[in-house]
Amino acid sequence: MSPAPRRRLYLPLAGLAVGVVVGLLIQFDLPVAYARYLTLVVLVALDSALGGLRAALEHQFEDRLLLTGFLWNAACGVGLAFLGDHLGANLYLAVVLALGLRLFRTAAALRRLVFT
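^ that's the sequence the OP posted. Answer follows.
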C-alpha cells in the first residue's frame, strides 16, 4: 500500500477511537424492543465500512456510494425485520444471514487485496 492511502486511514481510525471512548463514557439505555434493529444497523455499518475499505484499496471509493449504500441497506434490513415482527415471521434472521455472508465475503476480498 502506498503512503497516501495509509495517511487517509488515520482519520477514520481516529474517529473510531474517539467514538469508542465516548461510547464508554456516556451511559445510554436502549429499550429492549429496539435491540434487534440496532443489531442490524451495526451489521450494516460494519458491512459498509469493510466495503468502503475494499473500494479504497481498489481505488474505486466514492463517498456518496458508501453513504447511500449504508442508508439503503439499513432501511431495507430494518424494514424487513419490522415487517417480519408484524407478520410473525422471523425475517430478522434472514437479514442477519445475508449481512453475515456479505461481511465474510468482503473480509476475504480484503485479505486477498492486502496480502497479495
